[in-house]
From TrEMBL, chains A, B:
<dbReference type="InterPro" id="IPR015251">
    <property type="entry name" value="PepX_N_dom"/>
</dbReference>
<dbReference type="GO" id="GO:0006508">
    <property type="term" value="P:proteolysis"/>
</dbReference>
<dbReference type="InterPro" id="IPR008979">
    <property type="entry name" value="Galactose-bd-like_sf"/>
</dbReference>
<comment type="subunit">
    <text>Homodimer.</text>
</comment>
<protein>
    <recommendedName>
        <fullName>Xaa-Pro dipeptidyl-peptidase</fullName>
        <ecNumber>3.4.14.11</ecNumber>
    </recommendedName>
</protein>
<dbReference type="InterPro" id="IPR036313">
    <property type="entry name" value="PepX_N_dom_sf"/>
</dbReference>
<feature type="domain" description="Xaa-Pro dipeptidyl-peptidase C-terminal">
    <location>
        <begin position="529"/>
        <end position="788"/>
    </location>
</feature>
<keyword id="KW-0645">Protease</keyword>
<dbReference type="Pfam" id="PF08530">
    <property type="entry name" value="PepX_C"/>
</dbReference>
<dbReference type="InterPro" id="IPR000383">
    <property type="entry name" value="Xaa-Pro-like_dom"/>
</dbReference>
<dbReference type="Pfam" id="PF02129">
    <property type="entry name" value="Peptidase_S15"/>
</dbReference>
<dbReference type="Pfam" id="PF09168">
    <property type="entry name" value="PepX_N"/>
</dbReference>
<dbReference type="InterPro" id="IPR013736">
    <property type="entry name" value="Xaa-Pro_dipept_C"/>
</dbReference>
<keyword id="KW-0378">Hydrolase</keyword>
<dbReference type="InterPro" id="IPR008252">
    <property type="entry name" value="Pept_S15_Xpro"/>
</dbReference>
<comment type="function">
    <text>Removes N-terminal dipeptides sequentially from polypeptides having unsubstituted N-termini provided that the penultimate residue is proline.</text>
</comment>
<comment type="similarity">
    <text>Belongs to the peptidase S15 family.</text>
</comment>
């Protein structure tokens, strides 16, 4: 077990005393108390489940201070020393004596696990307060601070009269009752008319705010723009057929997306502070739900074309971004919202302190990035998890049509359909369907699945063009094994942020397309709390300097988080490899040789109804027919570990015998090892608790799986007709060689000493590319080919 | 999509009107209203999210009545007919026009899905009321009644002054606010002293009761005895080694379990109505949490040896049963509980109406069965899911040591350790550890992993011996693919219940060791509500006659639930098969032949680090080395489907060349088919909602998987030294033949026409049996062997 915390803030003793008093954890006359008296007073507070002295004493009696004394017996004299205090502290943190640690070995255990308990001597009441203060900031075995554990056991229910909001160690404390929260819906009037009905699109926004805001308290907002918020449609029948030949004709010019003029705003017939619609939607994002009882108002909006809103879905378009920022403009006081869609009664976000943060994963994080690139006033920070920064990099790769993993046949039009949840209300859908069908046609044409090329459609969906507009601070979070939103998305955005003036931070975990907020090895939720408390409450809490600039989970050692200075830095040194028969060699030793393989366009894969996992295993192992459909090269076992950091680049001199063809390449780690599990293991079902009688979610961690012989490091795909760039077609002359540059997806991967680095060159990637069933002969001129790997010094 | 509801109760029109009035869904002067007026009044109630006429009208405007009219426009004249009403009804039930059904085809869709909407003409206000009443009882697309959907959207929050409790169509309605519930802990004094400390074991009981009980309302209790309630211990290191030879020595006589005399009861120094400890434990059983807002108090207790209780774990013993029933005795007023463990203040369950039901799955359901077999007063009914009825049938099979699936090396002592959560409190554990270690030794000796035989230890853990004591009604629920708690457990108990006078019902689903309460194809939760409302509230609601006696999910057709008259009936007719080379044949045609195979005691399995799934696939397919370690026999493709119903029986004449050996057999369904998924598919994440702003869980269903060539039907295991019975050792004379009788686990399986029935005879079952690495030669005299299969006429 290893626990790393980055959100513990160094606090002066004076501030510690003030904070402990604000929590009512020490009595007002604490300075006149002896060590024993102070200890008794403090420990008496730690069992909010008990409501009598007898049961409180019974609770104390469950903890051992020494082998011969329990805490209840010890406290009246309380001759603390460091070991005794930490022995009790560990038990309070739910580590078990005998199972997790030995009674006389608290110090060793603390070091081994990495707990940031105070290790200074403990003799005086002042010492005790400092140790106790620190204990409140340290994580339990179950991934939360001890203060959060106290909170979850009812501390703020049992004792009353706390400040609202309340902060401790720089972070907001859960003093608001989420069950008393007000749930309401308003309709924000955008400037858009995406459904071409001559009226500005109204956008439903759902607000969940602490009851205390009803009495004049203003609080910041965590806003999540989620096209999935009101459900999704089944689009299985709408997926594109990927089992078809390459297109042979270049499409006509992409028609411009139809834009309706902005209609006049609705007349305002009055104002109100009272909404007319409430809601009960599923909780679906535990970070927001964690922060709600801590005083962050939750706002959710589906955006144009989602159920109860107006407009249509346009997948990644500027209109979608405007529909996202419209909510912020209303929250910030810069836009009108109504209590309903018809009678013109305006309502203000009078409970909002004007500071808005955005959160969300995948499409939700994408819209947070999109909003950030507008510089919309009021948006102070975004936490974008697994976010797309350019939709081209989601559905395409260097001219090739590439599906996100497990989403074969999906494209922008399909996703628009998936989220067009106005479809769920029959009478509403009946009105808008003809318009949406037209918009879908434009999406389908614009995305251009024939050439796969970058065009005006995709350019309009590239948020990175507007990086210079970013005013909000940005935290990017991404999984290094995310093949849904591939790593080029955060990598390129991240490097772009270096050219802005905003604070930006990066957190990379070892997961796929998942959250990282319920892993006990890292205090992600605390970090977000610290960050958002600074950015949205304006509390001076050293968050910017306390949180690491870059945090990366190691891929070899479980529960290990590193803080390098950067990731994917363009100046990283490069290791160059030449290609020889089955080997990666020094570039100067490249043989004058042509290697070749024959791709069948996925024919065998389709005929044998193989699954992608099995196919991939055969590719790695170079067994079966797949071995003939690829070329594999390996280094000898490496003497010293290599940390790949950035985008590997493959330069190939290639000839094919067909006028259309694609090329794929992957890097593979060869070497039997107990790698991390692809999906995190559930450590404790429902073990991660978000508040008192509030939601729980599973506690998970990447653990070491059974030994495997290999693992993919990264891969990339390319349309061979895109030798210049993704926007330009260069026709292939069959059997004539040419040079191509293939960028693999950026990565951070530690290849341990003794392992071999492998490169596999192939073509059809049945889980992601078209499966044309075209027979194509590939010839690679090894003398003119090279692999470049950026690495961390 | 197919939906079957069994908990809709036929109700007179007079009662329907009364119930609708009690729900405030129709106004008091409803009898004077025209059809249009009545419709308008009723529909105005159906949108509790809206709090203004404008937003309510907007909600109505989302539904289509006909292709040209929405509901808001329709209602002022409201010329209903059946098709119009059902078109709206389907939308209210969240079926989507265009996606799920066509606007002009409601009747076909209703029939196809199996919705029990009223199909009589709709012309008068009276007709309307009857149709609307029925609609409230019909399931939405998301597995709940329309009334529950209304409830979940805040109906009982928006309107006030309902009766508490409130019943509709025979079932309790969610009018209690679970967030206002009182959470408290008391300590029940048992007659036990399992920790031998000279004091009666106190047992912590957690109570979660609606706030309204504080003012004198008494309600029934749903009690779940869960040894896992306060956590579990990690016992990986305590698992028994199964990679070892058969034991060669018969152990000495099993020592009797140590029983301490019952100490005197604690002195009572006073009484109180106020508890002194509250709690916040995870919600873990959605049936209880569904029923809490419906007026069923939830009580949880860990029992002896669990955290905060006294005593030690004894796994299945009579003491454990007594610790389970002690809570019921307190709830029923027959036993003392205290507010804490020390000062003798007694407290009564003054909020309980004296009627207790038990619920739970696995160990939890087991303790419900255990309690039922005591006849303890107050216990009116048990719903036992995947329950053990004799612990011998959990850890043993006909003399062989057999692990529950995925639990190799587990046994009664390991489970006792797993649940001995007093270990989590260091000071408490320090006191009791020496005693528990002694008890563990007795458990280890008593369970006797050497012979695997039935003895006094297991006999004390056979609840079926006390079937004649059962006074509570019993509902057994079990998965037909549960290889954790194998089907002999419910099958034998079920047949035993036929000899009692209690009402008993059986529900078998196609899952493994799972719940069946979140599958939209069946209204399990409604059935439980109906049942518990009758049994615990005493409401006359026809539950006994309305609910099927036996409900079985079909294994071929998804979403299909059958109601045969019985299961595993001992008089079921038998099909007899003889064994020939690779064939199952007519018994008269048995060849005079010896078939043989060589078992390696799992050596190859262990050496190649194979996983059980792969091993099993090879066994079914008879490929690899496994084919030589088994004998396989198949029928020709069967002309007519065969419904196996009960326990298949294999009679074998066998000789082995070793003095110790085991034997296994399985039945296999051969035939390429799209079978049901082994685990249910998540249909809608968090789609199953238990109440207003209350918990949600996933909605799941068994769907058709990709085609597979075979599936195991059932299996069984036998120690060859147990030819007479499980309690008697008959030494094997190597190489001398003898006859054995192997009972396979009872099953219900529909083998479709065209498939082949397969029998595989083998020995080591690496996921369940010992893996001795012993080389054993098996000879089967086919002329003297026979397979008997009970089937459903």
């Amino acid at each position: 077990m290893h626990i790393q915390q980055f959100a513990q803030v160094t606090t002066s003793f004076a501030a510690q005393q003030q904070e402990l008093q604000a929590l009512h954890l020490i009595p007002s006359h604490y300075q006149s108390l002896s060590l024993a008296e102070l200890s008794q007073a403090v420990f008496a507070k730690l069992f909010p489940e008990t409501s009598s002295t007898v049961t409180m004493q019974a609770a104390l009696g469950r903890y051992l201070v020494t082998n011969t004394q329990n805490l209840a017996a010890f406290l009246p004299t309380a001759n603390w020393d460091l070991a005794r205090f930490n022995t009790v502290a560990l038990q309070l943190l739910q580590f078990e004596v005998g199972t997790d640690f030995q009674l006389d070995q608290s110090a060793q255990f603390i070091t081994q696990v990495g707990l940031n308990l105070l290790m200074t001597p403990l003799k005086t009441p002042q010492d005790f307060l400092q140790h106790f203060y620190t204990l409140l900031t340290v994580h339990t075995k179950f991934g939360i601070t001890y203060l959060d554990d106290l909170t979850n056991r009812g501390y703020f229910k049992a004792t009353q009269n706390f400040a609202h909001p309340l902060f401790f160690n720089g972070k907001a404390v859960a003093v608001f009752d989420p069950h008393q929260a007000i749930h309401e819906v308003v309709y924000v009037e955008s400037d858009l008319d995406t459904d071409h009905d001559g009226k500005r699109d109204l956008l439903a926004a759902t607000i969940i705010r602490p009851r205390e805001t009803a009495n004049g308290l203003t609080l910041p907002v965590l806003y999540t723009a989620s096209p999935y918020y009101r459900g999704t449609n089944d689009v299985d029948a709408d997926l594109h057929n990927v089992n078809r030949p390459f297109a042979t004709t270049v499409p006509a010019a992409i028609p411009a997306e139809p834009l309706a003029p902005t209609p006049a705003p609705r007349a305002i017939h009055g104002t109100s502070q009272k909404t007319e619609v409430s809601c009960d939607e599923p909780n679906f994002y535990s970070l927001n739900e964690y922060l709600l009882p801590r005083g962050f108002i939750n706002v959710f909006a589906g955006g144009i074309g989602t159920r109860d809103s107006e407009g249509v879905r346009t997948c990644g378009s500027p209109a979608e971004t405007a529909s996202t920022t419209a909510i912020i403009e209303w929250l910030h006081g810069d836009r009108v919202a109504f209590t309903n869609k018809t009678d013109g009664i305006a309502i203000k976000a009078w409970w909002c302190n004007g500071k808005i943060g955005m959160t969300g994963k995948s499409y939700l994080g994408t819209l947070a990035l999109a909003a950030a690139t507008t510089g919309v006033p009021g948006l102070k920070t975004v936490v974008a998890e697994a976010a797309i920064s350019s939709w081209y990099d989601y559905y395409r790769d260097q001219g090739a049509v590439i599906a996100p993993v497990d989403c074969q046949g999906e494209d922008a039009d399909v996703l628009a359909k998936l989220c067009f949840t106005r479809q769920k209300d029959a009478a509403d859908y009946q009105q808008v369907k003809p318009t949406f069908d037209q918009v879908l046609q434009h999406l389908s044409a614009g995305q251009d699945r024939n050439t796969g090329d970058y065009n005006a459609f995709w350019d309009a969906r590239n948020y990175r063009k507007h990086l210079d507009q970013v005013k909000a601070s940005v935290i990017l979070v991404h999984g290094l094994n995310d093949w849904n939103v591939k790593l080029r998305n955060p990598a390129t955005f991240w490097q772009g942020l270096h050219h802005t003036h905003v604070t930006h931070k990066l957190m990379l975990h070892q997961g796929k397309h998942i959250y990282m907020n319920n892993m006990p090895s890292i205090d992600f939720t605390d970090m977000m709390n610290l960050w958002l408390t600074q950015e949205l409450f304006g509390v001076t809490n050293q968050a910017t300097n306390t949180l690491p600039q870059v945090l990366i989970q190691d891929n070899v050692q479980p529960e290990t988080w590193l803080t390098p200075t950067d990731w994917n830095h363009l100046d990283n040194p490069q290791q160059h490899y030449g290609l020889s028969a089955h080997q990666l060699i020094h570039p100067t030793q490249r043989p004058n040789e042509i290697a070749q393989f024959q791709d069948d366009g996925g024919q065998h894969f389709l005929e044998t109804q193989q699954n992608v996992t099995d196919w991939e295993q055969q590719l790695f192992a170079q067994t079966g027919i797949v071995a003939q459909q690829s070329l594999a090269f390996k280094t000898p076992p490496i003497a010293k570990e290599l940390i790949i950091d950035g985008a590997a680049h493959l330069q190939l001199n290639v000839a094919v015998d067909q006028p259309h063809a694609l090329l794929s390449a992957m890097l593979v780690d060869y070497g039997v090892a107990r790698r991390l599990t692809p999906d995190p293991t559930v450590i404790e079902r429902q073990g991660y608790q978000l508040g008192y009688h509030w939601l729980r979610t599973d506690l998970v961690e990447f653990t070491q799986a059974a030994p495997t012989p290999f693992k993919m490091i990264t891969k990339g795909h390319l349309d061979l007709e895109n030798t210049i760039d993704s926007a330009t077609i260069t026709p292939i002359v069959p059997n004539q060689d040419f040079t191509v540059h293939l960028d693999l997806q950026p990565m951070r991967y530690r290849l341990p000493a003794g392992h071999q680095l492998g490169l596999i060159i192939y073509a059809t990637d049945p889980g992601m590319t078209l499966r044309t069933c075209q027979q194509t002969q590939y010839q690679i001129n090894l003398a003119a080919s090279q692999l470049n790997i950026p690495f961390q010094k």
